[in-house]
Design a protein that fits this description.
Blueprint lengths: L1 H5 L12 E7 L2 E6 L4 E4 L11 H7 L11
Antiparallel strand pairs: 1-2, 2-3
């Protein structure tokens, strides 16, 4: 996260919010959060873990499948 944050302006990273959904219009993506906050930009990075809400909306392929790797 620190590497991502160091590569963009300070106000381009949103922490401490619960992602709700995103919408894309042309080359712009808008993220909406549970608090009502919205953030807009050229790219949305869903760095929210294995059960990523961003991934769930993007791919819609359900829960991850455990493959038995340690």
């Amino acid at each position: 996260l620190a590497v991502l944050a160091s590569a963009v302006p300070h106000d381009a990273v949103t922490l401490g919010e619960t992602f709700a959904e995103y919408e894309q219009a042309g080359s712009t993506v808008r993220a909406r959060f549970g608090s009502g906050l919205t953030a807009e930009g050229d790219v949305l990075v869903g760095a929210d873990g294995i059960r990523s809400a961003v991934r769930r909306q993007l791919l819609g392929d359900g829960e991850p499948t455990y493959r038995g790797y340690p």
